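User: For a reading group we're discussing how well predicted structures match intuition. Take Probable electron transfer flavoprotein subunit beta. Before you show the prediction, I'll give you the sequence so everyone sees exactly what went in.
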Amino acid sequence: MRPSPVRLLNILVPVKRAVDYAVKIRVNPQQTGFDLNVKHSMNPFDEIAVEEAIRIRERLKDAVKSIKAVTIGPPKALDTLRTALAMGADSSIHVEIPESAPSPEPLAVAKTLQEIIKRQKDGVDLVILGKQSIDDDLGMTGQMLAGLLGWPQATFASKVDIDVAKKEAVVTREIDGGGEEIRCRLPLIVTTDLRLNEPRYASLPNIMKAKKKPVEKFSPGDLGIDYTPRFETLKVAEPPQRVGGGKVQDVDELVAKLKEAGITAA
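Assistant: Thanks. Here is the predicted 3D structure of Probable electron transfer flavoprotein subunit beta, as structure tokens, for the group to look at:
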């Protein structure tokens, strides 16, 4: 009997447009959220996910058939997809929402990714995404997606090794006090930790090539997903300004100051 042919891997990488990590966050005048009229870029953890997908293809050579990036966001989020394409992704999907629409919550994102995965004719063997986005820091999407699909999950990954023939992956996870190595069957959800890799810079030729790579567009309605928020933000406020300290000449003065402040020894 001839051995059955090894199925080539199809990798999906969700990415998010977020406020650039170097920008100082400020609350908007209405106190309903943050001032978004600032520089945006790809969420750093998602950038690590794109890099890892490319490195997997470099390690496995011809065993990876495609790397597809997907984002949910306003028209400007196309720039984030172009970055992923310039780094090495083959194609992309843009689920476009209005500029004024709030960022969809993790469950809505997970349901969107579930629907996109169902629509892939060649299937999806591996989903790699950031463990969290730096704007809301919720860190839920990967776990929710694994639950919806009934797939194994390996979160907070610092190392990923894929065995295509065995259709499994060995993932080292970041845990308190060290690392945990787990073995998972494909298809698999992996969320990336900072120690997984250092993303590459896209070269100018690849940036130019990215403009010609395909971008498939959907609306939430096309996918049958409701992005109505389940939670209401009542108010966003900056923390109170820290009061400056003072200097004392000796211990006696320090004790006196503490007594004045109503602080006494236990």
